[in-house]
Design a protein that fits this description.
Layout (H helix, E strand, L loop, with lengths): L1 H46 L5 H50 L7
């Protein structure tokens, strides 16, 4: 009976070793399949001219900054245009006042 027990134990040890080997093979296959899927997905993304998320977010940040700068420049331009209009009105009034003082009623300066 002891010999039978040793034989069963040996078979169980062999079976456990084969199961461990099978799990190692399966883990290797899983890693290889994952790498293959990632490689194919990257190739597909390149063919479709897709961008990576970090590149997309960087482009969004650049666009946001450009919009902010454009808004600031638009405000500065509006202020400069208003200032120019005031200066032109002041200059026009001065010319009109000089023409009136001379008694010149023509509209040509």
């Amino acid at each position: 009976m002891a010999g039978n027990r040793d034989g069963v134990r040996q078979r169980l040890d062999d079976l456990a070793g084969m199961a461990g080997g099978a799990f190692s093979v399966l883990a290797g296959l899983k890693n290889e399949a994952g790498q293959l899927a990632k490689s194919r997905a990257d190739a597909f993304a390149q063919r479709m001219e897709l961008v990576r998320r970090d590149e997309f977010e960087a482009a969004l940040e650049l666009a946001r900054r450009a919009r902010e700068e454009a808004e600031v420049l638009t405000e500065k331009l509006a202020a400069l245009e208003a200032r120019l209009a005031r200066l032109e009105n002041r200059g026009g009034d001065a010319v009109s006042n000089i023409m009136i003082a001379r008694g010149d009623s023509s509209t040509e300066a």
